[in-house]
Amino acid sequence: MALTRLxxxxxxxxxxxxxxxxxxxxxxxxxxxxxxxxxxxxxTFLNFHHRWIPEAFWDPxxxxxxxxxxxxxxxxxxxxxxxxxxxxxxxxxxxxxxxxYLIFSARLSRSIAPNAWWxxxxxxxxxxNPYLLEFFSLARGYGLANGFMMMGGSxxxxxxxxxxxKDGIWISIxxxxxxxxxxxWINAWLAILLIMGIRSWAWxxxxxxxxxxxxxxxxxxxGTTLGLAILLWNPLRWLSQGGEFQWGEDxxxxxxxxxxxxxxxxxxxxxxxxxxxxMGIALVIWIVGGVLALRIFLQRRWNDPFMVMAAALFWAxxxxxxxxxxxxxxxxxxxxxxxxxxxxxxxLGVGIARELLKIRYWMGGVSVGLMMGFGIWHFSRTAQLxxxxxWGFDANTRHVVEYVNDQYSDGQPLTLGIDWVFEHTAEFYRxxxxxxxxxxxEYSKELDxxxxxxxxYIEPMDLPLLEADYQLVTQFEDKAILLRRKVDSKIATxxx
Length: 496
Prior knowledge:
Number of strands: 4
Strand content: under 5%
Shape: globular
Structural class: mainly alpha
């Protein structure tokens, strides 16, 4: 009986943790291989797959848009060369980012939990945001950045408990790759430096240290900061000159609301009040987490730094965003650019539950259980293998261009007029499958209504412009429409 209790207490939770990690990683792998490529992924491939990514830090031609995401683009080249050019191989770098996130969120959960079952609950709270999970199966830099941020945050937790050179080096490595994955995460690196600076000051107060000890401790973080400053100076300047930092919202409230809506993934649990209620819940978590962290900091409880770390990371990143908006004129982060806040908010929620444990054990268990239960329920309602929320309009683009290509028999390739939002992905497939029955596509923000395309792939709002000369082939819900030119079309029939 004693052996059975020991097995239930220790072995079953460990096995379950591994199974949960495998299931979530498998979910990202399935999505990576099954989903149609999306607009931004295809744009990155078309613009940069043939170029030498390291030279981007010195060449302004790479920064016409902010679509490069250097580490992701470089790793895409490698996985594409090894495994072939297709959806899955190009997305493997961000699946690796998910692996990092899973490993270190599990390690962090075990480090802060009073028992193995509580660790599983904390792990699920950190992982079951469906909007966050989407980006671990897309060829963008966001999944890599969050994976490295969780890695850096884990080592930061251990370093705060006991400052040491080894953890400082790992923090610096994770921080470097986090920022190179997606430049927005530079705010997270600056927050990490701030927290390390405060802890170093407290460390010096606890016991006098020599200057050489302090220099040694900070050598890796400062080296990383210097390296990032050198690498990012020109790209950030070029992006600013091109107006790329103007993508976002001009009101913090709108950014906050959109972040909640993205997390909800269209689920109206409380009818029309759903978004407002969850905005309120998020605000309570952010404020209560900040207050509890401040109390712990003033008490100098560095032997238990999780709450301080989570709150400091969140509030430092939020403050940096507000200052950048007020002083530099950049917009508030929104949608995918706000992904930095999702893991940090989850960490705050877990931190609050840990503090409740110290008041009443059942309060901590109930709070983390409620967050876990909602996460499981919400994930069960939103998990799917068909599309992404951010670029849902591209869910059927591969199917469409393959259909058009199948209509080709001989002679000149078929011509496909296309709305600009679909063009990058359609051209990606035309080049890589390849689809020789379709003529090269043209990118334009305006539809060319006078050219006699054989087919037109458009957004539904553009149908009135073309329905006189084109007939419906198929409509994909409210996202896209494929049209074929009528035999009696009044548009000139000569080849465009």
